[in-house]
Design brief:
The structure holds two protein chains of two kinds. Chain A is of the alpha+beta class. Chain A has seven helices and 21 strands. Helices cover 33% and strands 15% of the residues of chain B. In chain B, β7 and β8 form a beta hairpin. Classes of the chains: A alpha+beta, B alpha/beta.
């Protein structure tokens, strides 16, 4: 299908800021996924509402409904916190129950927000939201500075492998736009994040209620010369999820068997690249079974690909095709940091099912080495993990898995724990380096 | 609103959808793809074919037939099924009415909500364990909180307060007998992403998505096509208007918008400047209350 010409010269149009860019042929668009976390009254809903409103992502009928609802509740104008109001129970109780996903775009970038509530089951929600995010925005109230929740949100973001944090210091109007107060909070946060191994931090003083430094910079804080929140989100480099980007990891999801009438007698192995790339002539090893072969055909748009191999190997759903030079570890024993989500506690000797990539295995819990206090960030002794607790746990598996450490590859280094009786997802596990 | 979704964005969305198809098809017995002939279900089918190529689609498609269809949508559905050699299951709301399972809302009444009964009946009768739906999280605030794999109990009900956490890209598709999953491969897509996919991939759609002349009446500030199930009411004067549809559903509750967009690129240009959501503009079924979608979803709606 022909693409529309937006300029008679045929040259690619310049990318401009603002809505005048509608309909033009874009430069490489990309996608930033970020999680937002804050304590109950830090103004997170207002911030997200403000971000969507000021980036002109709210449609007229939504704004109209918002005005009506605001008025019905005795408010004036637009209560932007209501934009993220989801379920009936939440509106009735004035709380946020679950992770919600929001979508908006600017000419620079598309965004998916994982909006994680801060109070009930904060670990479960924060871990879920952070697991798919590239960046986390930690919101604090300028009057209160870092609180217990801020420590937890920061620790959980670091634990989930998020390598860039944004500190949004909200309600600056209530501290008279004080640079001193902002610097105090920023310094404490940089120390906290640094202690957790996160060196990449951007702090932004703002006021979600009136929009200061959310989308537009304002004159309220002439001492601040950094970007607005949106400007920062539009330009922050998107971190890769793997530090071994050259090393192939292709977990096989689906095998296409050849048609009996077809001249093409080879099977296709389909999956999504977790790292690396595939090309014809490349040597690969099939794990955990072992055996190596050469790729003879590749189809699809990476990362969703399918390949054919020169040799018949023992390959099915759950096999990982990997780099011969830098293969994953194949093991039935592993240690992982587990965020426990189940109602029943995790105890030594417990039996579960784990799902790693597209492979399922039975698992027995061995020793529980420690429990992480997500407020003090100290490791303490433990013999069980209750719901929303985090600890280091040894697992023995019924069948080998091809794994990497979570710090090396977020996809091949993570698995979920399932209760086989209820089928509930009860744990999120990040594999430790051996 | 989403601008310019190409390259990395389109690839990421597409790859995720394909990933979801393969995971669910591999892990449950008897999945089915819900196909309305609407643009989202057409894109979903297009992605499903990519996911399993060069093999055949390893599951049937199912149409929940309200009996109040746009004739061109049924023609389109049958043409797609014939061309691709797909298995089609039709679950009929009329049949549910005839069997006394639900009451006929009568002429001009919406059969939208009745689809839930027909859908749940068909899932049970065919022992489907998973139904792929084209719902997107940007459509509604209840959908914004729904998982990619949404678990339904043996009554087909959704419990929004008790959803399985969904971590990384690891999907837990385990269910017990009688329960089923709804899988939403287009969860992260927006209306504009869908249209970019249609334009980039030359996806064929029912003609009514593009500008055409049609006899309509204006009702509740929406343009409704006149037809067998939507005769003009007292005082309504039918007139001809150049319109297109942004969504396709039951004829009694799906409105048209005035438009000269003749192809997918025109539609993209139009959406990029529009200020009204697609459901707000054209779906009477979502206008009843703040929680209209949530209530229908809890009962087992798409």
């Amino acid at each position: 299908m022909p693409t529309p010409q937006t300029e008679s010269t045929g040259a690619p149009p310049a990318v401009q800021n603002g809505p005048q860019n509608f309909g033009s042929e874009p430069v490489e668009a990309d996608l930033l996924r970020f999680a937002t976390a804050g304590s109950v009254d830090d103004g997170k809903s207002t911030l997200i509402g403000r971000l969507l409103h000021d980036s002109k992502s709210l449609f007229d009928d939504v704004i109209e409904a918002l005005a009506t609802t605001t008025a019905r509740r005795g408010g004036e104008g637009l209560d932007l916190a209501l934009v993220t109001d989801g379920l009936r129970a939440e509106r009735e109780q004035g709380i946020t129950i679950d992770v919600a996903y929001r979508y908006f775009s600017t000419p620079q970038r598309s965004f998916i927000i994982a909006d994680t509530p801060g109070h009930v089951q904060y670990t479960r929600n924060m871990v879920t939201g952070a697991s798919t995010s590239d960046v986390a925005v930690i919101l604090v109230d300028a009057r209160h500075g870092l609180r217990e929740q801020s420590h937890r949100h920061t620790a959980l973001s670091a634990l989930l492998g998020i390598r860039h944090l944004v500190l949004a210091v909200n309600k600056m109007d209530l501290v008279d736009w004080s640079q001193e107060r902002y610097e105090e909070i920023r310094t404490a946060f940089v120390a906290l994040a640094g202690g957790l191994g996160v060196d990449s931090v951007q702090a932004i003083p703002l006021c979600a209620l009136d929009g200061t430094n959310v989308v537009e910079r304002s004159a309220s804080m002439p001492w601040y010369d950094g970007p607005s929140l949106l400007e920062h989100l539009e330009t922050v480099p998107i971190p890769t999820t793997s530090t071994i980007d050259d090393a192939l990891r292709l977990p096989i999801q689906w095998v296409v068997r050849p048609d009996t009438q077809s001249a093409d007698s080879k099977r296709w192995y389909a999956g999504q690249l977790a790292s690396g790339s595939v090309s014809v002539g490349q040597q690969v090893v099939a794990l955990p079974a072992g055996g190596s072969s050469t790729i003879v055909a590749v189809e699809g748009d990476p990362p969703a690909v399918r390949v054919q191999l020169a040799d018949e190997l023992d390959i099915g759903r759950g096999t990982v095709l990997a780099s011969v030079v830098l293969p994953p570890q194949v093991t039935t024993e592993l240690t992982a940091t587990v965020a426990w989500l189940g109602d029943q506690p995790l105890t030594s000797g417990g039996r579960y099912v784990v799902k790693h990539l597209s492979r399922v295995a039975k698992a027995m819990v061995g020793e529980i080495y420690d429990r992480l206090d997500v407020t003090t960030l100290e490791h303490g002794p433990a013999d069980s993990l209750a719901s929303n607790e985090i600890g280091t746990v040894r697992f023995t598996l019924s069948a080998p898995l091809a794994i990497d450490a979570y710090a090396v590859n977020r996809r091949t280094g993570s698995f979920i724990v399932i209760d086989a009786r209820t089928n509930a997802t009860v744990g999120a596990a990040m594999i430790a380096a051996e | 609103m989403r601008f310019a979704p190409v390259n990395r964005l389109a690839r990421a969305l597409e790859a995720h959808s394909i990933y979801v198809f393969r995971e669910v098809a591999a892990e449950v017995d008897r999945p089915v793809l819900l196909f309305s002939g609407g643009k989202d279900s057409v894109v979903m089918l297009h992605l499903a074919l990519k996911a399993f190529a060069p093999g055949k689609l390893p599951f049937p498609i199912m149409h929940i037939d309200t009996g109040h269809n746009f004739p061109e949508v049924i023609e389109f559905r049958d043409r797609v099924v014939a061309e691709l050699g797909l298995d089609l299951v039709v679950a009929s709301v009329q049949q549910a009415i005839d069997h006394g399972l639900v009451a006929d809302p009568g002429v001009n009444g919406s059969r939208n909500r009745l689809q839930t009964t027909a859908l749940l009946e068909a899932i049970a009768d065919n022992k489907f364990e998973a139904a792929f739906g084209g719902a997107r999280r940007d459509e509604d605030k209840a959908r914004a909180k729904e998982r990619v794999l949404s678990f339904r109990d043996s009554f087909g009900q959704w419990d929004p307060r008790n959803q399985r956490p969904e971590l990384w890209q690891i999907y837990n598709a385990r269910i017990k007998t009688g329960e089923h999953l709804r899988a939403f491969p287009l969860s992260d897509w927006t209306e504009l992403d869908i249209w970019h996919y249609i334009a980039d991939n030359g996806v064929d759609l029912p003609e009514m998505y593009y500008s055409h002349k049609r006899e309509v009446v204006e009702r509740d500030s929406m343009l409704l096509a006149t037809g067998e199930w939507t005769p003009p009411r007292n005082g309504e004067v039918p007139f001809f208007e150049t319109v297109r549809y942004r969504t396709v559903g039951d004829m009694t509750c799906t409105g048209a918008v005035r438009s000269y967009a003749a192809n997918a690129w025109d539609v993209i240009a139009e959406i990029e400047t529009t200020r009204i959501t697609e459901r707000g503009a054209t779906r009477a079924d979502d206008r009843f209350s703040e929680a209209a979608m949530e209530d229908r979803k809890r009962e087992g709606y798409f």
